[in-house]
């Protein structure tokens, strides 16, 4: 383990009605890195992320997190004991239309985490909200507006601001740029990278789009049927995939160069 | 060029609380027969509205306010007294936009001559009918054949789109299928009446990249075998590169660039097209911010409409005279 390790996951498993969703997964996350988790739908990547944050409870395994007060084992904590740790671990969701309450103003949305965690007084909270709007490059007059008045990209900025307002260390991005148009996606990816540098964030980046992962991630885990089949530094892994499943995934990416024909591997021919 | 569809000066407006929104402004392009035309653009560019115009699916508060869509089917229309699928008896071209609502040609159009595959296969399929029933229904709607014959042809088409164990599968319901399998069923439904134009509206966007590759290969192979024309709507330039012969780039309800797939993707002329390409994550060097459309377009004005003009290499761009050409 490195001394800059922020999170270690050991032997994590989660079954739904006896069906394994995550099976014996182990890995480390270092501070300030972006770790990608890729795989097809049903591979267990979202379940894994949720188990780590204790949004759902894992069946087995150890999740150690380096909190402000030292190492804690998340899997055994009671809901009450988890509350202070929630400030340090946050999530950015996929769908900016579904993840914001339509009946709350931007100010209420961004202030709510501060109120829940009893951070600051009214003035301090407003100052924190305005500061966070600056970070995500939204105008201050957004405060009194409702989510419907914003475009998809702007809504995702609000979702990011809500996740970051408590100044977490670990941020789980679950398909956070998948629902966006390519030009908006590029802006949000750039924003996530700027925020990581400015605020020292560590990202767990769950995604199915491998070209986004290649751009934003340092290391990557490839998941298949609940297990991690391969992991490594993203450029090495993409250049020299060792496992057939990784090769299958990479071969399915359509190149934007019309002279590079799509030749996806056949699932059966690689025995999957 | 032999065009199956010729769209000219198409304009669509939507009445909203804040006034009229112009969804399409002077859209015009040809769909070459037997080829794949991709329409690319971001949300709000008008690519789906264009497809809905071809299918005459624009509903109030939307309205086609101007333009024509001339359709030149290869085979004769049965509503004009010809046997269906009579070989090489061309129907006279007609304008889809001005067809009266009760015109029999309209019903023949829907799913018969032009059919559509949507993004979400589960919403395109009925949950309460078996898969076989739904595919066969498409045949029974358009042709005077027995149920037995319709069932047999459905089985053939389902086999062709890659389903196995056909007889059992046909008696199953859509919820028993995976997303990729459902999309194969929808494609079978769309192709079972041998349409001349297949419109695919983001058919792979909801699918995993591995399944997307399978469906793209399937659509391309079927198009090659059946010889139909395809309009493929997508925002993914990787998908465009792999499937298209011709590319139409749309932005804010306007057509900005039309050319062959190599012209548009390897040597884009319009600044917006260049921006769209530069924003693809896989192409940017790591550790550097991605190019956004704004950063590539820079000072170039992409908001002012310019009529399309043809460049020396045959492509069309919406740019002022003094720029490249």
Summarize the structure.
Chain A has helices spanning 45-52, 79-86, 106-116, 122-135, 152-164, 182-199, 210-216, 234-239, 244-251; strands spanning 5-16, 19-30, 34-38, 60-67, 70-73, 89-92, 170-174, 202-207, 219-224, 227-233. With 272 residues, chain A is α/β, with parallel strands linked by helices.
Q: How would you explain this protein's 3D organization?
A:
The complex is a heterodimer of chains A (272) and B (325). Chain A has helices at 45-52, 79-86, 106-116, 122-135, 152-164, 182-199, 210-216, 234-239, 244-251; strands spanning 5-16, 19-30, 34-38, 60-67, 70-73, 89-92, 170-174, 202-207, 219-224, 227-233. Chain A has 272 residues and is of the alpha/beta class. In chain A, the strands form two sheets. Chain A has a six-stranded mixed sheet, with helices on both faces. A four-stranded antiparallel sheet of chain A has the order 2-1-4-5, covered by helices on one side. In chain A, helix 6 (182-199) links the parallel strand 7 (170-174) and strand 8. In chain A, helix 3 (106-116) packs across helix 4 and helix 5 (152-164) packs parallel to helix 6. The longest helix of chain A is centred in the C-terminal third of the chain and has 18 residues, at 182-199. Chain A is globular. The two termini of chain A are 33 Å apart. Chain B is α/β, with parallel strands linked by helices. Chain B folds into two domains: 3-113 and 196-318, Rossmann fold; 122-194, no CATH class. In chain B, 33% of the residues lie in helices and 24% in strands. Chain B contains twelve helices and twelve strands. Chain B has helices at 47-54, 104-109, 121-124, 131-142, 147-160, 166-170, 179-191, 209-226, 237-243, 261-266, 271-278, 293-297, and strands spanning 3-16, 19-32, 36-40, 62-71, 94-95, 114-117, 197-201, 229-234, 246-251, 254-260, 309-310, 316-317. An eight-stranded mixed sheet of chain B has the order 6-7-8-3-9-10-12-11, with helices on both faces. A four-stranded antiparallel sheet of chain B has the order 2-1-4-5, with helices on one face. In chain B, strand 11 and strand 12 (316-317) form a beta hairpin. In chain B, helix 4 (131-142) crosses helix 5 (147-160), helix 4 packs parallel to helix 7 (179-191) and helix 5 crosses helix 7 (179-191). Chain B is globular and about 65 Å long. The model of chain B has no long low-confidence stretch (mean pLDDT 90). The chains are: A alpha/beta (272), B alpha/beta (325). At the A-B interface, helix 6, helix 7 and helix 9 of A face helix 8, helix 9, helix 10 and helix 11 of B.
């Amino acid at each position: 383990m490195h001394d800059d390790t922020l999170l270690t996951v050991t032997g994590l498993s989660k079954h739904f009605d006896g069906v394994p969703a995550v099976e014996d997964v182990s890995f480390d996350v270092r501070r300030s890195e972006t770790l990608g988790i890729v795989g097809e739908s049903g591979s267990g990547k979202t379940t894994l992320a949720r188990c780590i944050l204790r949004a759902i409870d894992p069946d087995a395994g150890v999740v150690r997190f380096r909190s402000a007060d030292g190492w804690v084992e998340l899997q055994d904590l009671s809901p009450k004991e988890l509350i202070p740790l929630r400030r340090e671990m946050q999530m950015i969701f996929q769908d900016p239309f579904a993840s914001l309450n339509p009946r709350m103003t931007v100010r209420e949305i961004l202030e709510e985490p501060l109120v829940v965690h009893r951070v600051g007084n009214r003035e301090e909270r407003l100052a924190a909200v305005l500061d966070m709007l600056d970070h995500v490059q939204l105008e201050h007059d957004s405060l009194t507006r409702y989510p419907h008045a914003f475009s998809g990209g702007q809504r995702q900025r609000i979702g990011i601001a809500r996740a970051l307002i408590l100044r977490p260390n670990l941020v789980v991005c679950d398909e956070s740029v998948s629902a966006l148009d390519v030009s908006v996606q590029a802006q949000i990816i750039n924003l996530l990278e700027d925020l990581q540098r400015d605020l020292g964030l560590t990202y767990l980046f769950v995604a199915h789009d491998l070209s986004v992962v290649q751009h934003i991630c340092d290391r990557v885990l490839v998941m298949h049927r609940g297990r991690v089949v391969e992991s490594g530094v993203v450029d090495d892994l993409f250049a020299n995939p060792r496992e057939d499943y990784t090769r299958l995934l990479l071969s399915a990416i359509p190149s934007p160069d019309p002279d590079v024909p799509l030749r996806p591997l056949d699932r059966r021919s690689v025995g999957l | 060029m032999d065009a199956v569809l010729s769209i000219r000066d198409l304009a669509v407006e939507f009445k909203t609380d804040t006034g009229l929104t112009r969804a399409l402004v002077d859209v015009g392009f040809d769909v070459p027969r037997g080829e794949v035309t991709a329409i690319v653009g971001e949300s709000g560019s008008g690519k789906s509205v264009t497809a809905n115009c071809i299918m005459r699916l624009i509903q109030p508060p939307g309205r086609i306010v101007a333009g024509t869509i001339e359709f030149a089917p290869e085979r004769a229309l049965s509503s004009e007294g010809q046997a269906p699928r009579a070989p090489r008896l061309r129907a006279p071209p007609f304008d889809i936009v001005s067809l009266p609502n009760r015109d029999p040609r309209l019903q023949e159009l829907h799913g018969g001559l032009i059919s559509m595959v949507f993004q979400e296969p589960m919403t395109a399929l009925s949950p309460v009918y078996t898969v076989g029933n739904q595919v066969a229904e498409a045949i029974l709607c358009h042709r005077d054949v027995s149920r037995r014959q319709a069932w047999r042809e459905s089985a053939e088409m389902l086999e062709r789109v890659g389903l196995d164990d056909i007889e059992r599968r046909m008696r199953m319901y859509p919820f028993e299928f995976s997303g990729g399998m459902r999309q194969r069923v929808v494609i079978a439904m769309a192709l079972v009446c041998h349409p001349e134009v297949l419109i695919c509206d983001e058919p792979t966007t909801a699918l995993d990249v591995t399944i997307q590759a399978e469906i793209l290969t399937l659509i391309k192979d079927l198009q090659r075998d059946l010889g139909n024309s395809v309009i493929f709507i997508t925002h993914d330039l990787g998908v465009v590169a792999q499937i298209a012969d011709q590319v139409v780039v749309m932005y804010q309800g306007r057509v900005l660039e039309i050319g062959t797939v190599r012209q548009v993707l390897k040597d884009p002329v319009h600044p917006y097209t260049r921006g769209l390409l530069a924003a693809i994550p896989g192409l940017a060097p790591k550790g550097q911010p991605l190019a956004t459309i704004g950063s590539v377009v820079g000072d170039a004005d992409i908001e002012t409409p310019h009529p399309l003009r043809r460049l020396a290499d045959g492509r069309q761009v919406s740019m002022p005279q003094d720029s490249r050409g």
